[in-house]
TrEMBL record:
Biased composition (Pro residues): 75-86
Organism per entry: Nannocystis punicea
Chain spans, region Disordered: 65-86
Protein name: Uncharacterized protein
Amino acid sequence: MSGTATVYTLAEKYGIKTAFGTDILFSEELAERQGAMLAALSRWYTPTGALIMATSTNAELLTLSGRARRRRSPSAPPPSIPSAAS
């Protein structure tokens, strides 16, 4: 099993949230393949699950990133991650 397959399989098995993102924004050639890359995730996720990962889960990750930058106290507790049910 490849490293990618192992990571996605274990993430799904243990309920670990994953995000989808690339650094291809500034490459026209690669940007055209981004949809195919997202579709390839259907090997491990349902189409809906892949879209959720690429949209709302990414938004959660960005929100956490913003909270981390705004924290002033090193002793502040880490932000909580909202559950999908909330």
